[in-house]
Every structure is written in structure tokens, then in C-alpha cells.
Write a structure and sequence with these properties.
147 residues, 0% strand, mainly alpha, Rhopdopsin 7-helix transmembrane proteins
């Protein structure tokens, strides 16, 4: 009888941890969504913040907002569905979002590097068309990888 009680007490913390992980995912997704919505609203609201670097940062915030939505969906759906196909689909979507986020960060890094190293020739080396083209290319990769 004591062996039966000890096995029962071991299974409860595992179920509790799964619930805590689900709640943690939900909270992380909510925080990600709120902070990225705030970034998007602030840049769109104030005209002084509408620069080409901030345009890429807003695009990055949109990608991260989608990432927050996917995290929320995953936390909610994991309570009801335990299908391997759903897990695989969510993993692929998160990989695509991660790739898009990294490519946006590379674009911002290159933009800031050129602005610091070549301040007088910055607009010649990195025109707005090049920046917008790379941002559109990042979104094309995101859209076509999802199809």
C-alpha cells in the first residue's frame, strides 16, 4: 500500500508542471504581444520616429507579434489537442518566424553599422530602396515558406 501511495504522489507534480508550463507560455505570449503592439503604435503615432531604421524595427515587431499569437495558440491548443501533426506544424511556423526575426535583425545591424562607420556616405551606401527591398524580401520568405 505504501508503494501505491508513493507512485500516486510522483504523478501529481508532473501534471502540475505541465499546467505551469502552459500558463507560462500563455503569459510569455501575452507579454510579447503587448510590448510589440506598443512599439508599433509608438512608431506610427509620432512622426519623428518614422525613420527607415524604425520601419524595419516595426516590421520586426510585426513578426514578433505573430510569434506571440502562435505562442498563445500553442499554449491554448496544447491543453486540448496532443496531435503530433500540430506540434510539427507549430515547430515549422516557429522556425520560419525565428528565421524572419533573425533576417530583420541582420538588416538593422547592417543599417546601424553603415550609419556609424560611414556617417557622411551612409545614404549612398545604404539607400532607402535597398532597406525596403531587404525588408520586402524578408516578408516574401516568410509568406512563401508558409505556403
Amino acid at each position: 500500500m505504501s508503494a501505491n501511495n508513493s507512485s500516486h504522489s510522483i504523478s501529481n507534480p508532473i501534471a502540475c508542471n505541465f499546467g505551469n508550463i502552459t500558463i507560462l507560455r500563455f503569459l510569455i505570449g501575452t507579454v510579447i504581444m503587448m510590448e510589440n503592439l506598443l512599439n508599433i503604435v509608438v512608431v506610427c503615432r509620432f512622426a519623428k520616429l518614422r525613420t527607415k531604421t524604425n520601419a524595419v524595427l516595426v516590421s520586426l515587431a510585426v513578426v514578433e507579434l505573430i510569434s506571440g499569437v502562435v505562442t498563445l495558440l500553442r499554449s491554448v491548443l496544447s491543453c486540448y489537442l496532443t496531435v503530433n501533426t500540430l506540434c510539427t506544424f507549430m515547430a515549422v511556423v516557429m522556425f520560419i518566424l525565428l528565421t524572419s526575426s533573425v533576417s530583420h535583425l541582420i538588416c538593422v545591424t547592417l543599417d546601424r553599422y553603415l550609419a556609424i562607420i560611414y556617417p557622411l556616405h551612409y545614404h549612398v551606401y545604404f539607400p532607402i530602396g535597398c532597406l525596403l527591398g531587404s525588408t520586402i524580401d524578408d516578408w516574401n520568405h516568410f509568406i512563401f515558406c508558409c505556403k
